[in-house]
Amino acid sequence: MLVILFILAALFGALVLAIAISRLFRLVRDSVFLRSPLLAEQTLEFDKPGSLLLNTEAPLLASAFQVPPAFRGLEYTLRHAESGTEVPLHRVLAKVATSSFRKTRILIRRFQLDRPAKLTLTIGNLAPEVKTDDCALVFTRPYGAAMPLLILMIVAGALLFIGGTVFTILWLSGAF
Known about the structure:
This protein has 176 residues and is an alpha+beta fold. It is 34% helix and 34% strand. The strands form 2 sheets. Strands 1, 3, 6, 7, 8 and 10 form a 6-stranded antiparallel sheet that branches. It has a 4-stranded antiparallel sheet with strand order 2-9-4-5, with no helix packed on it.
């Protein structure tokens, strides 16, 4: 009878794990608001107000755990295209990295828009000799509390799955 409980715990853990991982991937994918190439100056259109995050995106091996070479020493200025009024870009305390199998995205700035706007992004100190073909700037919406909750679900699901599987094997082998 106890072995049935172990099997159910492992199955429930696998289900929680699968749901949490798929929702985590969807959260990261759906948070992308706008992706643009790394250019010295460009005009971007933001059709929704709210909090936004500016991220760098580069190939995985070029940017693992550090700001990619193409983004080092750059100065970012964001202005309203019509009025020229500057939009304050705030530094982030922790440079959070989000990685896939091919790319790494690193959070570098945050800003707030009170209305939809057409903004001009100017990047200072962009050296022409630095290869930027594989690099991009990605504007995302904040994850909020969803990211930590999904990570907790993944940990709980993994514990249930591994614990249920190990105890089932121990039970069936006669160790209990």
